[in-house]
Each structure stands twice: as structure tokens, then as C-alpha cells.
Amino acid sequence: xxxxxxxxxxxxxxxxxxxxxxxxxxxxxxxxxxxxxxxxxxxxxxxxxxxxxxxxxxxxxxxxxxxxxxxxxxxxxxxxxxxxxxxxxxxxxxxxxxxxxxxxxxxxxxxxxxxxxxxxxxxxxxxxxxxxxxxxxxxxxxxxxxxxxxxxxxxxxxxxxxxxxxxxxxxxxxxxxxxxxxxxxxxxxxxxxxxxxxxxxxxxxxxxxxxxxxxxxxxxxxxxxxxxxxxxxxxxxxxxxxxxxxxxxxxxxxxxxxxxxxxxxxxxxxxxxxxxxxxxxxxxxxxxxxxxxxxxxxxxxxxxxxxxxxxxxxxxxxxxxxxxxxxxxxxxxxxxxxxxxxxx
Length: 344
Known about the structure:
Elements: E1 25-31, E2 40-44, E3 47-53, E4 59-63, E5 77-79, E6 82-84, E7 91-92, E8 98-100, E9 121-124, E10 127-132, E11 155-163, H1 167-175, H2 180-183, E12 202-203, E13 207-214, H3 222-226, E14 233-240, E15 244-251, E16 254-266, E17 269-278, H4 287-305, H5 326-340
Antiparallel strand pairs: 1-10, 2-3, 3-4, 5-6, 6-7, 7-8, 9-10, 11-17, 12-13, 13-14, 14-15, 15-16, 16-17
Helix pairs in contact: 1-4
């Protein structure tokens, strides 16, 4: 998919180090179907963005507040590729430059500083990806792969989930190998079998994964699909810097993938834009059951996330770790590597 806005400009706004946002990465921020010619505000770690579609259906992403009086641009209107502020009608082009101030006399020039930051955007896997950084896109990590999304024999559903916690804790929860016996004890977890087998860490340039096998305890819809004698399960967890995680579960020939982009809203709120992709019961009639199962699992996980203390600490010695934490530790090491490179 082509980039729909390739204008690269230095960031006009800076985020504090406590916000723990890494730059020079692609961030999944919304489902494609949610963006139309009606502008929409996206909150990104306290920073407001506005997204809308232009005349050719391309997504345009700009800073979300007018430089004049800080009005929310999503409350305004779109004409062609331009967006107008609802307060005084200031018009901004797709590159963020203010091209018209209605109150000005004809001989009054528009200040050069009257412009918004614009951001490169891609659409892939039914998601909108925004590049947050100051390096050329081609010099930075690409959007993570998701081959199953376009393969025949797979069915996907999508949704959102709001968490009460920092995105680093949310991501860590989704790749955690040891919490299921306790957090999901009433569903698929087994408190009588909490031991996590040793697993091998497989690392990429900005990613890592690991897998374990386990005795299956089917819950929710899987009870009816796997029957009374289910095969052993294989759980694979993967992360892609900075805010993407993937969970693969396989029970014999039955497989599903959870692909999760964790949108950092602020220090205490994260919204996960999720895809559930399955190779079984591919009829649309089963979609509502799959969505329900995902949400039930996330509700239990959120109960664990919201009782943790803030963001995951950069200092690896600030918390005590066990061998089962190898995957989360790899994430923190990659995070620190990006910080050392000046990508924060």
C-alpha cells in the first residue's frame, strides 16, 4: 500500500520522557473503516491528531488543533483535501499550511508560522498506520508483517478495547507467558498447572517471540469447537517495536491469530485496535462469538493491568524478573536501545 502523505517535517511538538513514546516507528492508530470525509480526532499520548479522507480517498493526518486559538479541528469541516477550523474558518491544506484566513483583508498576508504538522500515513491490514518521527521513512523499521490477513481460508474480525493502564504494561500483558493460570483461572487458565516450560527466545531486528505448549483447557467458543478431547495447545507470543503484539494459538488444525496495536492515549489509558483472524468456522455467523471471546479475555487482563504501578520501568533492575519473563525483558531492552539511539 502506498504512503498517502509522504511529507516529512520536523516534529513541532515534543513529548516528555515520562510519556515513553518512541519515535521513528509506525504506530497503528485506527481501523481504516473509521476514517471518512468527516474529520476525526485521535488522541496520541496527550497529543491531538485529526484524520480525514481527501478527494481521492487518501487519509490525511495533521495536528488536531488550530494554531490560532487551539480549537479542535475535527469539529470543523472538510472541503476537497482541506480542513476548516470551526471557530474562525481558517483553512488548512493537506500539508498543514494555512491557506486562508477569512477575517483578513485581501492585502494581509498569512503568517508563515500558521501551519500544522502533517504526518505520513499508510493503510495496511485494515488499519491506519501513522509515522511518528523525524527520519526518512525508508530508514526506519517497517510495519510488521501479517500474512494471514490476505490469505484464503482465514476469516478476520476486528474491534477496540480500552485499557486502564500505560501501553507498555498492556503490551507486556499480551505477551506474558505466566499469568493465564491466575488471571484467566475461570476460563482457560489452570491454577493447578502454573509452571512455564523453558522457551527459546527468537529475536528479529526490532522484534522477538517465543512459544510454549500446554494442556488445553477450552473456554468460551472453543469448548464447542475442540470437543471433550482437545489436542495440546501451542501458544506463541510476539512483539514488534514499539507498540504491536501478536498472539498465535494452535490446537491441532485449528489456529487463530490476535494482532494487536496498542494506541497510547495518555499515561493511564491505552486503546487496543485488534484483529482476530481464524482458519476455522469461517462463516460470518460466528463473528459475534469471536468478538465476544476476545473482549471477555481482555476484561480479565485489564483487571491485572490496572493494578500495576505506571509504565514499565526503563531500569531493568527496578523490578525482579523470572525466566518466564524473557520476552518482556527483550521488549524493554529494545526500548532502551531505541532511547540510546536518540529515538525518544
